[in-house]
Structures are given as C-alpha cells and as structure tokens.
Amino acid sequence: MSAALLERPLRRAVRQCAGRRHGAGAGGETTLEQIISRAWEGLAVRASVACPLCGGAMAPLGTTPGGRCDCGSELT
Ligand SMILES: [Zn+2]
C-alpha cells in the first residue's frame, strides 16, 4: 500500500468537514466571532453598533478604535 492511497480519502474527509462548517454559517446560525467582527466593522467607521453582550447601542470611542456600551462592555 502506498502513501498516496492513504492520503486521498483523508483529503476528501477534510474537504467535507470544511464544507459542512461553511454551510452551518450560511444557514443563519450566527457565531460569536461573526457578531464581534460585525460590531468591529461598524466601529471602524465610527458608527454605533449592537452590543455583542446585551444587544443595546454600543457607541464608538472618541480617539481609540473600539466602542463602549451602557452595560459596561467594551470592544477595544
Ligand atoms: Zn451592552
């Protein structure tokens, strides 16, 4: 048995696994990573975004990149 024969099924399995994970993300399930990266996108252009913790309004900080919410959470 050669190494190439063993390698092929493994590669296929990895691809299937990655595809499933991508499908779950597209299916409407929002991960914490997505929520935070979306908040950062808004804060980067100095916009108020939904707080990842409480869902309230997170206002951008004055001078440093990031934001702060009334609930006390901060993204910096
Ligand atoms: Zn909050």
Please tell me about this protein's structure.
A four-stranded antiparallel β-sheet has the order 1-2-3-4, covered by helices on one side. It has 76 residues and is α+β, with helices and mostly antiparallel strands. The protein contains two helices and four strands; from the N terminus they run ααββββ. The longest helix has 24 residues, at 3-26. Zinc ion (ZN) binds at residues 51, 53-54, 56, 69, 71, 73.
Summarize the structure.
With 76 residues, the chain is α+β, with helices and mostly antiparallel strands. Helix content is 49%, strand content 14%. The chain binds zinc ion.
- The helix/strand class is alpha+beta
Q: What is the succession of H and E elements? A: HHEEEE
Could you say how many structural domains there are in total?
A: 1
Spatial order of the strands in the main sheet? 1-2-3-4
Which sheet architecture does the biggest sheet show?
4 strands, antiparallel
The shape, in one word, is globular
Mind telling me the C-alpha Rg? Answer: 20 Å
Topology summary:
Blueprint: H1 3-26, H2 32-44, E1 49-50, E2 57-60, E3 67-69, E4 74-75
Antiparallel strand pairs: 1-2, 2-3, 3-4
The structure holds zinc ion.
Zinc ion (ZN) binds next to loops.
List keywords for this structure.
alpha+beta, binds zinc ion, globular, 4-stranded antiparallel β-sheet, 76 residues, 2 helices
